[in-house]
Amino acid sequence: MPYKADATQLEPGSIIKVESPSSSSGKPTYPHFFIVLAVPDPMRLGELIPLVGITSRIDPRSADPAKHIAMKWLDRTGGDPETGFDKRCYACVDFTHILTVYSGTSFEFEVAAENKKKFIRADKLQTVVATINAWGRRK
């Protein structure tokens, strides 16, 4: 069953799961977690919600602070209570996705994602956004 979430329940810093996003190389990949960067206000059909991807495939020794932001995690069942992450992972500024708000069968404003109400704190979100902005200026 495809992921469905109520778009009105998302906010900047929400962590959601997307079923088949494109990888940073543009090819479809397996389900990944993403951080919601912004949400439209007011919510309307067709609005776009920008996301930045999270991956656990980065070796800590090769993490680049210019594009990888370490996420809060705990090595235990259920992971960190806020993020849900149970292993080291990073937000990657070059791994992005856009959700489109549509009229759904489960919610008035729906997106193709799973929302388990996990999140990053505002200070971490500010770090992610600042890193994205700095990365964009490098290009």
Write a brief structural summary.
The protein is an alpha+beta fold. The chain has one helix spanning 122-138, and strands spanning 5-6, 14-18, 32-36, 48-55, 68-70, 90-100, 110-111, 114-119.
Low-confidence stretches: none
Helix share, percent = 10-25%
Strand fraction band?
Answer: 25-35%
Structural class: alpha+beta
Mean pLDDT: 93
CATH level 3 topology: SH3 type barrels
In the CATH classification, which architecture applies? Answer: Roll
Q: How would you characterize the largest beta sheet?
A: 6 strands, antiparallel
Counted by DSSP, the helix tally is 1
Query: Can you list the strand order of the major beta sheet?
Result: 5-6-4-3-2-8
Number of strands: 8
Q: Over all CA atoms, what is the radius of gyration? A: 15 Å
Quickly list its features.
139 residues; alpha+beta; SH3 type barrels; six-stranded antiparallel β-sheet; two-stranded antiparallel ribbon; 1 helix
Notes on the protein architecture:
This protein is α+β, with helices and mostly antiparallel strands and 139 residues long. It has one domain: SH3 type barrels. Helices cover 12% and strands 30% of the residues. It has one helix at 122-138, and strands at residues 5-6, 14-18, 32-36, 48-55, 68-70, 90-100, 110-111, 114-119. Strands 5-6-4-3-2-8 form a six-stranded antiparallel sheet. The chain has a two-stranded antiparallel sheet with strand order 1-7. The protein is globular. The relative contact order is 0.27. The mean pLDDT is 93.
